[in-house]
Amino acid sequence: MSWTIEVDGGACIGSGMCASLMPEVFELDGATARAVAGNVGPDETVLDAADSCPAMAITVRDGAEVVGPRP
Length: 71
Known about the structure:
Layout: E1 3-7, H1 17-21, E2 26-29, E3 32-35, E4 39-40, H2 44-52, E5 58-62, E6 65-68
Antiparallel strand pairs: 1-4, 1-5, 2-3, 5-6
């Protein structure tokens, strides 16, 4: 089982929170972040990164189901 990570480059404000939490999954690319790994195994820290994004620019999916950010 793997999760798909998407970063909305139009919404991202480049705060770097995600890259600080998981540098192996996210990196800053200029003024925005991008997912270095498009697919990852289920990981609570990935959800924490999506939850902590001030622009809500990170979406984590398990197949068609959105699992992050959490409500």
